Amino acid sequence: MTRDAGFDDVEYLLDGFETVETVNDFRERLRSGRPLNVKLGIDPTSPDLHLGFMVVLSKLQRFAEAGHRVTWIIGDFTARIGDPSGKNATRPQLTPEAIDANMNTYRRQAEKVLDLERISVRYNSEWLDRLDLADLIKLLSKTTVAQMLERNDFSNRYRSGAAISLHEFLYPVAQAYDSIAVEADVELGGSDQLFNLLLGRHYQREYGQQPQICATVPLLVGLDGEKKMSKSLGNYVGIDEAPEQQFGKLMSIADSLVPTYARLAAFRSQADCDRMAAEISGGSVNPMVVKKDVAESIVARYHGAAAGSAARDHFERTVQRKELPQTDLAEYDVPHGTRIGEVLVRAGLAESKRAAERLISGNGVKIDGIVVNDPRGAWTAETAVLSVGSRKFVRVRAQKE
Hints:
There is one protein chain. The chain is α/β, with parallel strands linked by helices. It has helices at 10-14, 23-31, 51-65, 78-81, 96-110, 125-128, 133-140, 145-148, 152-160, 166-182, 194-206, 243-250, 258-264, 270-282, 287-303, 305-320, 340-346, 353-361; strands at residues 19-21, 37-42, 69-74, 119-123, 186-190, 213-217, 330-335, 365-367, 370-371, 383-388, 392-399. The strands form 2 sheets. The chain has a 6-stranded mixed sheet, sandwiched between helices. Strands 7-11-10-8-9 form a 5-stranded mixed sheet, with helices on one face. A hairpin with a 2-residue loop joins strand 8 (365-367) and strand 9. The longest helix has 17 residues, at 166-182. The model has no long low-confidence stretch (mean pLDDT 88).
């Protein structure tokens, strides 16, 4: 077998991980000279991936490039259970239809980071659907309630008196069984998944396998600078979002978060990010310029260098210099005299007329750069640029009767 550079380079393979259980085991298995079975499981809980997912996917790709046997497990079975990791409530169980719809987009978006020709993609329903009640009882007999309550979200809910459904205990058990099914040497995950990964080690011992090395990555903080990036919290940057939308969102992060995004989302070295943090805190660089550099590199990764540069130019023109975009705008024709709120809804800039009125009342709507003050005002311009905030623009033409 021809090995790519980095096959047995521990520092290279584990660079950027937050927790590794255990490095000594990892070194020993690499010395055997055989490709390691490396596993990552992701549940299709939403239709889109965001930058937070790409942190661990980039690490998975690194193992693939180094010549190891990499398996990306799509948790179509475990998604039916629902994992409340990091939450103090049960995550809703997904229907098979929702799971199928989400899975259709996952592979396409993940290919922006993963070379799927090097990676095996499997669904954990392959083996979990085959378990009968006797198999399940055997699995559950190898774990105690006390062990389950060591998981932070379970223990917090138990102490507070919040309900914990029995089926929720099945989630970490099912994920642990994935490691047995693929005989994992290494499992990757986010830091909020450490309990589940360690349970996989426990189960592998019980089934006579070598316990896997558990390697977790830091969680990418969302745009709010407080909680982990999550679509449900609205603090995310989607992989499939338009370049201008991605760039604009990234420019909203606090200056102090720029080195973190450079490290986890732009995949720059720790040394570069440490230097960047020192320069920003020391005032030797303009944080705005550094932030734009990082944002451009992230957009370029998912849309190409030209799109990254164009998104930066769009931001500088429309946000910094307050210029109105003149090209590449969606165009809408509306009857002369249509209420502006209705125009916003027709153009997809507001979800409802009530939402449109709130945007107008908050001075967030402009026509050719002029703030709209009347929530019930009518469209009277012949042709003009309608904008919401600093990133959403459309061209509207009035049709005369």
